[in-house]
Every structure is written in structure tokens, then in C-alpha cells.
Amino acid sequence: MSRDVWDPEIYHHYADERSRPFFELIARIQAESPHYVVDAGCGSGELTAELARRWPHATVHGFDSSAAMVGKATATGTLTFEVAEVETWRPDRPVDVIVSNAVLQWVPAHRDLLPRWTEALTPGGWLAFQVPGNFDAPSHTLIRELCRTTWRDRLGDLAPGTPVDGPAGYLDLLAGLGCQVDAWETTYQHVLPGADPVLDWISGTALRPMLDRLDQDERAAFRADCAALLRRAYPRRPYGTLFPFRRIFVVARKPG
User: Fold this and answer.
1) Alpha-carbon distance 77 to 54, whole Å?
2) Which own/partner contact pairs does 6-10 have at CB distance under 8 Å and 24+ positions apart?
3) Domain presence at residue 65
4) How far apart are CA 163 and CA 192, in angstroms?
5) pLDDT reported for residue 3
6) Given a cut of 70, is residue 161 above it in pLDDT?
7) CATH number of the domain within which 14 lies
8) Does the pLDDT of residue 160 top 90, yes or no?
9) Total-model pTM
10) Quick check: is 209 in a domain?
11) Is residue 1 part of a domain?
């Protein structure tokens, strides 16, 4: 996982579209008055603040591996942030709610994290996460093929396969730990404005490891190659560019 390649300005270009899954995820968490809530992979903290608004009497803590992102976060008396790695983070006390929004796809061994996070919960505590499930979509398959062919000398090792499970896989894992699990998927039909909106979208996420590897001239050439492929796969329509985006949601409650 690239540690600090995130550009907060690019990432927030489609803030409304990116935040919608978060709100749909936390709407399914039925914790009434948690004391300690953690946002694992909090980014720049805007959505972590929404957790504090949802549970105003809780201590809410967000962490992220990107110092650039955490540097944009605003702490308050009950809302705190730190730079920490998802793989190695350990809570200093039992947690009532752990939320992770569009982060675990960056952690190849994240399935091993889920039992540890479940163990960190209080009895009756909640684990909720959401990950993109669109890794077999043209926005990803075309870029992987480009990395393996034209750009194989520079980027050939940055073309992994699908890094996440479907809803059934996560349900099976967490139900096997004794949790009550609600798992589902949604495919959003985003309509994006602009000349190369799919390229703009993935420049803040999927392309970050590639762009971080390349120098300035190489980045421009790589983005041009990506743009040509994505324009054909996602043609611009009179009303904008249609960008289907599948996401996987999981909400699990630990036995009381």
C-alpha cells in the first residue's frame, strides 16, 4: 500500500459521490450510545466528523496512513486524529464501533485484520466497512492491461487482480466468528461531468501508486494513454459520462 501518495484536492473532486456509500453504511449501524468510535482510514476527517455528529457523546478517533490527509483533519475535544497504518494499528481500549470506508481494498491481508478488529470490539460492538467492488470494470481492467504491456518496464508489478471479496465471502468470515452480519452490494450509476471524468476519478485512487512511481513527463504520457482507453470504454453522453460503480458493504455485530 502506498503510504503518502494521496492528493486531498484530487480525491475530493467527487466528494458527494464518494461520501454517499459512507452514509448508507453507517445508517445500518444500530449502536445507540457508544463510548468509543474509531474511523480506520479516516482520510481528511470530514466523514469522521459525521460520526461525531451521529454519536455526540462518544469519543471519536480517526487514523490514516497518509500524513497529507490527516493534516487536513480538524480535531476537537472529542474528535481526535493520528497517522497510523491500518495493518498495525491497535486500539488502546475496547472499541464500541469500528468504521472503515473504502480503505481495506488497499490492504492485501485485510481478511486477517477482520478477526483482530472483531476481537477489539466490546461485547455487542459493531464493525462496519465498505470497499469498492469494481476491480473487474473497464476502469481497472484496461489500466491493468496497460501496466502489463505498454508500461510493463515501469509499472508491470503494479497490476494486481481483484483485491476484495464479495458480500458472501465477508459474511462467511465474520459469521464464523459468531457475529450477526448484514452484507450487501450496490452498483451506483454515477453521471460525471467533464472531458475525462473517469480518469479524474481514478487519478485520486486507483492510479495513485502508478503516478507516484513515474516522473513528471512519464505521468503525462501515462495519463494520456489511460485517457484514450477510458474515453472509448466510457463515452461521453449529452448529459455526462455514465460511470457504474459497484461497492461491497458489511455491517457485523459482535455477540453480546
Assistant:
1) 16
2) 6/43, 6/66, 6/68, 6/69, 6/204, 6/208, 7/68, 7/204, 7/208, 8/43, 8/44, 8/68, 8/69, 8/72, 10/200, 10/203, 10/204
3) yes
4) 25
5) 44
6) no
7) 3.40.50.150
8) no
9) 0.91
10) yes
11) no
pLDDT at res. 205: 84
What does the alpha-carbon distance between residue 21 and residue 252 come to, in Å, rounded to a whole number? Answer: 16
Q: What is the mean pLDDT of residues 58-79?
A: 93
Burial class (CB in 10 A: 0-12, 13-18, 19+), 215: exposed
Question: The domain containing residue 187 runs over which residues?
Answer: 8-253
Determine the pLDDT at residue 18: 83
CA separation for the pair 11, 202 (Å, rounded): 9
Report DSSP state, residue 207.
T
The phi, psi pair for 158, rounded to 5°, reads -105, 45
* Cell numbers for 245: 460503480
What is the Cα 161 distance to its own chain's centre? 17
Number of domains observed in the structure of the chain: 1
pLDDT interval class at 1 (50, 70, 90)? very low
Residue 226 lies in a domain: yes
Residue 163 per-residue DSSP state: -
CA distance 161 to 185: 19
| Inter-residue contact 240 to 115 (CB < 8 Å) | no
Q: Which amino acid is at 248?
A: I
Question: What is the rounded CA–CA span in Å between residue 63 and residue 141?
Answer: 30
9: left (phi over 0), alpha (psi -120 to 50) or beta: alpha
